[in-house]
Amino acid sequence: MIEISARPMEFDAANEWLRSRVTAATAMTSRELSLAPDFDARVRAHAFFSARVEQANVLEAIRAELDAYAAGEYDLATARWNVKTALVRLGYDADDVGMAGTPPEGMDEEEWQRRRSITNLASTRRQNLILRQNARMGWAVGRRQVSMDPAVKRRWPNFRYIARDDSRVRPAHAALDNMILPKDHPFWFSHTPPWDLYCRCDIEDSDAPVQGGAVTIENPDGSQTARVDNPAAPGGTREIAPPESGFVFRVDEAFGTPDWDRIPDGPMKTTVRREFRRRFGEDAA
Predict the structure, then answer these.
(1) What percent of the chain has a predicted confidence (pLDDT) above 70?
(2) pTM summary value
(3) Which SS3 state, helix, strand or coil, does residue 229 take?
(4) What are phi and psi of 237, to 5 degrees?
């Protein structure tokens, strides 16, 4: 199983993708983002954002630590501490990483729960999610770059899906365990882990025979529904719905050129174009 830790991310594509994403401040929730016509999956693949974070400088403080964490410069605890320190300077209330199961002396229950909540950007829960999820996405981009190399692909032409074997694995993820499909199969575009929040699954190169099948259906928001027949898992043919969280990760789009013209004229287009030019220069598209 892949667990991102303090190790170098050596893949050029992963580093380039993490570095080149445009910071997109937004007032939308995760669910609203998933349904927004001006922020579809192909746009999201080249944007760095977090639900209901409207200040670009706040996002930039987070991504600076994220990039260092993903590159293996230091571990999760250090990255999280650095982010919290920066967010406190920007006016956020961080929780105490060392908190036990009860509020610390002098803090009431309501305030304690508020600081610990996933909705608090400076909480341990929220920072763990942002840092781990984005690092795993970067790792998936790097993995695909290496696995699709012609020499590697000739030797191992397929991917095998590996679901985490524990009580926390979601049924939709467990249903994909040990399914083996060609690397070119469009199923992997939308179901390369992490394809949902907190996804801890993995894929590996395989030269074993294809096992199972999948048909993907594109939805208007860029997410995909999959109809899967996996003989390695009980239940026969089943439909894998897009994540309820609205999370969409299209690993194939990470290798494409962002098409900001897909965004209708409006605040989001203004935001991403401004940030793209700030990052890459006034002559950038």
Answers:
(1) 93
(2) 0.86
(3) strand
(4) -70, 135
